[in-house]
Design a protein that fits this description.
This protein is an all-alpha fold and about 180 residues long. The chain has 9 helices and no strands. The protein is flat. The relative contact order is 0.11.
Length: about 180
């Protein structure tokens, strides 16, 4: 809720910080929350912003567990920063990145209901309607419980299938998996 409130305030065409910054360059910003084509971009970039901190903590923790003697040996062998990154850092990050990818793939069909529902309005509903909001509207607003239950079940089965598929592919390619 707080995140959505911040997004709405930042993107306000009259008082938002984004419109103020763009206004310094003489550009008039349209109502971004009322623009249907802009909604997917707003959702994706705010999702990146929302998860950037936690993901950074995980990757930094992974890099901090790398043995410093590997860097010393690479430096003694004449490896520069780029070579150390390619041959030490990236191989150390791959298992963590693989696990994060597998976990995110399990939710690829379950785009966050709360954020979309709170950012949704009549002007952007053409592109902001997702399976979760459709299930909510069909089940609770139109009292079609069996239809919304079937859609939700089918959605979760697809999520499970994608999770298992990506997990098997990761196991074959890198010997890193959740199962």
């Amino acid at each position: 809720v707080v995140m959505c409130g911040m997004i709405i305030l930042f993107l306000s065409p009259s008082t938002g910080i984004i419109s103020k910054i763009v206004g310094l360059f003489g550009i008039q910003l349209q109502n971004m929350m009322g623009s249907a084509p802009a909604f997917p971009h707003i959702y994706v970039w705010t999702e990146v912003w929302q998860h950037l901190g936690w993901d950074s903590i995980l990757y930094i923790a992974t890099l901090s567990s790398v043995d410093p003697s590997l860097y010393e040996a690479a430096t003694m062998d004449g490896a520069g920063k780029f070579k150390r990154m390619i041959h030490i850092d990236i191989p150390a990050l791959l298992p963590t990145a693989t696990v994060m990818f597998i976990l995110r793939m399990g939710n690829v069909m379950s785009v966050g209901f709360e954020k979309v529902y709170l950012l949704q309005n009549t002007m952007n509903s053409g592109t902001s309607e997702i399976i979760s909001t459709y299930v909510y509207k069909m089940g609770l607003l139109k009292n079609q419980y069996s239809l919304s239950g079937a859609i939700g079940l089918f959605n979760n089965i697809i999520n499970l299938a994608l999770l298992l598929l990506v997990n098997q592919i990761a196991k074959k390619l890198s010997d890193t998996s959740l199962i």
